[in-house]
Amino acid sequence: MSTAIPPWARALLLADRVLHSSARFAALVRTELLLAGLSAEQREAVNAAVFSAEDTYAPGGPTFEHGLFAWERAALATAPFPASGRVLLGGAGGGRELAGLSALGYEVTAFEPAPALAHALAAVASRHPGSRAVCASYADLARAARGGGGPLAAMLGAPFDAVVLGWASLSHLTDAAARTALLAALPAVAPGAPVLLSYLGPDDDGRANGRVERLRSPLRRGLALALGRAAAAPGEGFQPGAGFYQRFSAGEIEALAAAAGYEAALHEREPYPHAILAPRSERSGGA
């Protein structure tokens, strides 16, 4: 025997659906306006401000206090990642990975572009002998690798034994040229060294394929046409607590690595997308 839904309940459920769709549409418009209206440099400034306001990544915050994730520990224990040595850590946040790597015996040189997090990172580094930290970006790393000076120039002395690109930090480089420059810089500062990176995969955001989502592509194209700019690439997005980001497929990561002379020695999609890249010549030579 069926029970009729009272009219007032039907009205509330309908209102809830309307409000939910309206909020999703507003978020979509906000994201597409920001993607279309800001340059790569302006996006980086927004990301720095967003992450500076997030205290979860600094000492005392839940993410920091979690320590290294299980998948990070497993990757660090997997060849060709070395069991000891000097590690260059980029996009280091408030020091979670620095503390974890130092506890495992690595000597860490770390950098982070968000000023508030870089300040926390420096405080963490000061508690771990042999570790150093500075406020700098991946663009600063590429510049230093070319001999162009900057905040990282004095910290790139002896070559590093390994490189870690901090948790999903690669995905916050939404400019393709910036990603290429980063991967090209790594062999110069860490020749022969493996690179551990993680990234946002294509299915992580759980977007519904509903009527609101179907408006994204035409809105993106229309804004690009109106502003006279190239449309944002597939996978680009923005979230208030995460800033601008680029999502990658596994194939895109491996293509990016191959273009820089690396190949995937390890590539896992679960529980979080990550890979260890090894210089292709080294892998071929050991075969």
Protein described:
The chain is of the alpha/beta class and about 290 residues long. It has a domain at about 55-200 and about 250-285: Rossmann fold (3-Layer(aba) Sandwich). It contains 11 helices and 9 strands. It has helices at about 5-35, 40-50, 60-65, 70-75, 95-105, 115-125, 140-145, 175-190, 215-225, 250-260, 280-285; strands spanning about 85-90, 105-110, 130-135, 160-165, 195-200, 235-240, 245, 260-270, 275-280. Helix 1 packs parallel to helix 9 (about 215-225) and helix 7 packs across helix 8.
Overall spatial form: globular
Task: Quote the average pLDDT.
Answer: 92
Largest beta-sheet details: 7 strands, mixed
H-E order? HHHHEHEHEHEHEHEEHEEH
End-to-end separation in angstroms reads 70 Å
Question: What is the CATH architecture term of the domain at 54-199 and 249-285?
Answer: 3-Layer(aba) Sandwich
CATH superfamily (homologous) name of the domain at 54-199 and 249-285? Vaccinia Virus protein VP39
CATH-derived topology of the domain at 54-199 and 249-285: Rossmann fold
Question: What's the count of strands?
Answer: 9
Global structural class: alpha/beta
- Proportion of residues in extended strands: 15-25%
Largest sheet, order of strands side by side? 3-2-1-4-5-9-8
Task: Count every helix, treating DSSP H or I runs of 4 or more residues as helices.
Answer: 11
Rg calc: 21 Å
Low-confidence stretches: 283-287
